[in-house]
Design brief:
eleven-stranded mixed sheet; 13 strands; 21% strand; Rossmann fold; 320 residues; alpha/beta; globular
């Protein structure tokens, strides 16, 4: 689903906001049709039983309202400046320079539910967020972990996160496997002698990276077996591309996913072709709209996200 708002009216939990599907000209829906549910019967039983239903909440509305409050003039100027910068920069870096393009994936309460935390304030462990962007989405993790480390390859975004002062460490790493070392050097105390994290987040990165299989194998070695969790957000259907400066190209590693598959089929295929082959098991699945600050044409845009919480099976020694 890729929609845009067709009104600038603010709303509350029960109001109706008209949306127009970009991919189906003239089709209309209400705010209550934002996709949180799934046709669970279309999922394999082992995945269907892992589905957790989420719903739009006040925190989601707060983000939407903040987008709606921006004037058309402000959105127009910001979009035009970004367009100019994208001649020499990636979209991510252009947004970082301008301080625009904020995203919303899920609220703190929704995240707490997915992780099985006993309330939002259940603070423990160290989390690494890979490809954290401007850090706004990462902020949802702050109440749930004692320390949060972020990594990002866009230097403008790195600067924005460092300026916020919210994170135990903000590291620039060409290779994810370096993150544990860099975090330790920055003074963050990690479990397992400084080699692993309690949790890793990878939010809307998989479909924008060159080597998704290699990346998942690296993440496998960065979390604690048994207790560790990897939180994945990914737009479905899966249509990957890689930003290379101002250009876009296909990734080196391809998963051969159907770009027109249903959300449910895409969940199954991603599990079978990526998560299971790289040694993960699925703990929970949810569906949320992935919302982004808009431009002149719409105050906010959205895509259809799947949230996976994955674990690494604990290896039990034969001598144990």
């Amino acid at each position: 689903m890729h929609f845009l708002l067709s009104t600038s009216e603010e709303f509350g939990l029960c109001s109706l906001l008209t949306l127009r599907l970009r991919i189906v000209s003239g089709a209309r829906m209400t705010l209550n049709d934002l996709a949180y549910g799934a046709k669970v019967s279309r999922l394999p039983p082992e995945l269907a039983e892992r589905f957790i239903q989420l719903d739009r909440d006040e925190e989601t509305n707060t983000f939407l309202n903040s987008c709606l409050r921006r004037s058309k003039t402000s959105r127009y100027i910001s979009a035009k400046l970004a367009q100019l910068l994208r001649v020499v920069l990636s979209r991510t870096s252009a947004n970082g320079v301008l301080g625009r393009g904020s995203m919303f994936v899920m609220s703190s309460a929704q995240l707490s539910k997915l992780l099985g935390k006993d309330g939002v304030q259940a603070t423990e462990g160290v989390l690494l967020d890979v490809g954290a962007g401007d850090g706004k989405v990462t902020e949802k993790f702050l109440p749930m972990f004692s320390d949060v480390v972020t990594t990002e390859r866009s230097m403008p975004m790195v600067r924005r996160m460092k300026q916020s002062g919210n994170y135990a460490a903000v590291v620039y790493a060409e290779d994810v496997s370096e993150c544990a070392r860099l975090a330790t050097e920055a003074g963050v105390e990690l479990p397992s002698g400084g080699t692993r994290f309690d949790a890793v987040a990878l939010l809307n990165v998989l479909d924008r990276c060159d080597k998704p299989l290699s990346l998942m194998r690296q993440l496998h070695g960065l979390v604690e077996g048994g207790s560790g969790r990897v939180i994945i957000a990914v737009v479905l259907p899966f249509r990957p591309f890689v930003e290379h400066g101002a250009e876009r190209r296909s990734p080196i590693e391809r998963l051969n996913m159907d770009p027109n598959a249903s959300w449910e089929q895409s969940v199954k295929d991603l599990t079978d072709k990526l998560f299971l082959p790289t040694g993960f098991q699925v703990e929970s699945i949810s569906r949320v709209p992935y919302l982004a600050e808009g431009d002149l044409y719409s105050p906010v845009y959205g895509l259809d996200d799947a949230i996976f919480v994955l674990s690494v099976p604990k290896v039990i020694s034969e001598d144990a």
